[in-house]
UniProtKB/TrEMBL annotation:
The keyword Oxidoreductase applies. InterPro entries: ADH-like_N (IPR013154), ER (IPR020843), GroES-like_sf (IPR011032), NAD(P)-bd_dom_sf (IPR036291), YIM1/Zinc_Alcohol_DH_Fams (IPR050700). Gene3D superfamilies: Medium-chain alcohol dehydrogenases, catalytic domain, NAD(P)-binding Rossmann-like Domain. It comes from Streptomyces olindensis. The keyword Oxidoreductase applies. Its EC number is 1.-.-.-. This is NADP-dependent oxidoreductase.
Amino acid sequence: MKAVRLTRTGGPEVLEVQEVPDPEPAEDLVIRTAAAAVNPVDLATRSGLIPTSLPAVLGWDLAGTVAHAPAGSGFRAGDRVLAMTAQLGTGVGSMAEYVSFDPKYVARVPQGMALTDAAALPLTGVTAVQLLRRTPDRRGKRILLIGAQGGVGAHLAARLLDEASARTDLLVRPADHSAWQERRAGCPADGAVLTDPAQVEAGAYDIVIDAGGAPGLFEAVRPRGAFLTITPFSAPDPAVRPDVAYTLIGVELDGDDLADVAETAARGDGPRQEATVLPFEEAAEAHRRLERGGFRGKLVLVP
Ligand SMILES: NC(=O)c1ccc[n+]([C@@H]2O[C@H](COP(=O)([O-])OP(=O)(O)OC[C@H]3O[C@@H](n4cnc5c(N)ncnc54)[C@H](OP(=O)(O)O)[C@@H]3O)[C@@H](O)[C@H]2O)c1
């Protein structure tokens, strides 16, 4: 089968489509990949910023159809599914024609959802769900979400804007302002769309969620407030604000969270991000587009 593979780290040009052995059908479910999304972690793995053992097949997210279902797995051949693999921990990447999974980390793609759209959901959506589970009680609180326009940020924004009991301000790039003004019109949550960190009031927020990587905005948290981040490479030093509850999220595989993300998106309550579809052979181009910054939506590769 073919796979997007790294034999050395470096620029996008190190990505190659190569022939690799099919996974052995055994205890695990084997999924025939229809689409696999590109995430920033793939860029960090490819560049060597995050160490990995080589050669490696890249990718965390996929959607496809079940090719082999062991008895008792709860799935049947032909089922439409989405899944997330912790590529860094397991060495199993999603950018291959067939990928094997523990069935407990696989969820069904809701009826009517395109597999290319489903593939865009797992890592970003599950991270958002797990981050929100770790925020303190949000009722009556003032919240700042940094990077609402990003992959994880858009899932967080969709859920936070649905909560009338809190006031949520969004910090986005200037080019995203009008889209987010429109997006939040009519949403239950009160709040503003900000585009400049200088507009952010210091010490004013009960909860600051950083989905973009703006460590300087640690100062926006009030004393005894909470700061949650997902960006280990641009996170503030928690020792600077011992009065703040600091959380660095590390996403974990979870089939129930994945199902929640897929069902939320199917109801129309998800991130509303468009998928840009490219073939596996254009993996390097996908990495270049994401690396440049300013890309919106999700890049999805198809075999
Ligand atoms: N800890 C975990 O478990 C976990 C899980 C998932 C993702 N992550 C990490 O979290 C980060 C975001 O992931 P993602 O998939 O959402 O990436 P993404 O789709 O590239 O989104 C990041 C967004 O943040 C924006 N941004 C960056 N700095 C900003 C700032 N100072 N103010 C406002 N917006 C800012 C970017 O805008 P521009 O494009 O204009 O620069 C981009 O829209 C990545 O570093 C990723 O590796 C961590």
